[in-house]
Amino acid sequence: MTASTADDPLFAPLQAGELKLPNRIVLAPLTRSRAAQPGNVPTTLNAEYYAQRAGAGLVISEATNISEVAMGYALTPGIFTDEQIAGWRLVTEAVHAAGGQMVLQLWHCGRMSHEALHPGTPNMAPSAVHCDGCQVFYVDDAGQGGLRPVSPPKAMTKADIDATIQDYVTATRNAMAAGFDGVEVHSANGYLLHEFLASNTNQRTDAYGGGIVNRVRFLFEVMDAVLGEVPAGRVGIRVSPLFTLNGIDDANPAETYGYVAEHLSRRGIAYLHVADTDVMRGAEPQMEQMLSFTRGKFDGVVMLNGAYTPERAREALRNNDGDCVAFGRLYLANPDLPARIRQGGPYNAPNPATFYGGGAEGYTDYPTLE
Ligand SMILES: Cc1cc2nc3c(=O)[nH]c(=O)nc-3n(C[C@H](O)[C@H](O)[C@H](O)COP(=O)(O)O)c2cc1C
Predict the structure, then answer these.
(1) Catalytic pick from 50, 73, 191, 259?
(2) Residue 133 lies in a domain
(3) Cβ(31) to ligand 1 under 6 A?
(4) pLDDT tens, position by position, 55-73
(5) Percent of the chain with pLDDT over 70
């Protein structure tokens, strides 16, 4: 069935700050672990993958390490060396040539890492709270890659905090030099910024820990530093308020994320990306609850993510739950997702065996409709 797009909310254009989205279908950030070695550098294969998905209203890059110590998983790209900037330029040029626009997701893994990825420097975290049972992927001394327990983190000193903020500044500057249309600050999924927000991982007793005003301080300092490099209308943030994986257990997410939404709204950023990432492990969607304490506090564009089908996405937009929808696994497997949604499918099924690592298989070879 070919549906008319005239009354389809997924195909209504959207102004998100300075970003003009031709439709409301966003490529969610997806780590694919295919950066060239050594150096974790984006390649022409990565450029092809992203260009295939340039029909999105907005393309969000996979999470990208802002520094060496930020890295928590082998084979993931960075944005802190000249080679990485040049590699990302191949990607942004390909996406722009295909008519798309793209933001870079700025990533610091915090305690979700292993020292083997940044020898000589322990994992950074708000507090020295080890995550029992958490695993990351790295290559050991014997050259074997595998998912293994994280190594113990150190509590960041004030000097570490200041240096990390500077790393965000440099990474943002590098992203813009690489041709991105903006950046998304990754404050979700149990990584460094999320660890500062969550009460169980942040046990500091200085100005960066304790009550909500202190726990958000590092995030707001990072945001303000990023906003010093890029206009607010080109900066988004991703949060996952009810995320419970990676050892996160926030005592009061409604308070934490209500506060975050309200104060970032005042800064006029392009969008608030609310991600329901527990769905990846089969949890029931919890978006309604997350929106109950964020949507009304944020005046800008709200991006929804987590187990959205095109039908559920339309319904959410018609309900005014949010303004656009990011698709992860569905977009991963359907490079021409907007065209498929326009004509009502069919959809390729994603293959989890090729999500991370490898080459073109399961990456650039998902068929389009033609
Ligand atoms: C292979 C894979 C890689 C992912 N990588 C990232 C990432 O780099 N950054 C991020 O914020 N979320 C990441 N996620 C989470 C997705 O962006 C998204 O939140 C999740 O897949 C749920 O959305 P979906 O149901 O539309 O797939 C990843 C998910 C998958 C399946």
Answers:
(1) 191
(2) yes
(3) yes
(4) 999 999 999 999 999 999 9
(5) 99
Range of the domain at 140: 9-354
Given this model, what pLDDT does residue 6 score? 74
Give yes or no: 191 in active site: yes
- Residue 19 pLDDT > 90: yes
Distance from Cα 277 to the centre of ligand 1, integer Å: 7
Residues 63-85 have a mean pLDDT of 98
Residues 128-134 have a mean pLDDT of 97
Give the position, in ligand 1's atom list, of the atom nearest the Cα of 238: 11
In angstroms, what is the span from residue 32 Cα to ligand 1's centroid?
Answer: 10
Name the residue with the closest Cα to ligand 1, atom 24. 328
Q: Is 4 a member of any domain?
A: no
Q: What is the CATH number of the domain that holds 190?
A: 3.20.20.70
The verdict on the CB of residue 312 being under 6 Å from ligand 1 is: no
Residue 92 in contact with ligand 1 by CB distance below 6 A: no
Number of structural domains in the chain: 1
For strands 271-275 and 301-305, give the pairing.
parallel
Q: Which two tokens stand for residue 21?
A: 């989205």
Asked if residue 301 belongs to a domain, the reply is yes
Confidence of residue 89 (pLDDT cuts 50, 70, 90): very high
Ligand 1 in reach of 303 Cβ (< 6 A):
no
DSSP per-residue codes, 166-181: HHHHHHHHHHHHTT-S
From the list 286, 269, 181, the residue with the least C-alpha distance to 222 is: 269
Domain membership of residue 44 (yes or no) is yes
pLDDT of residue 1: 42
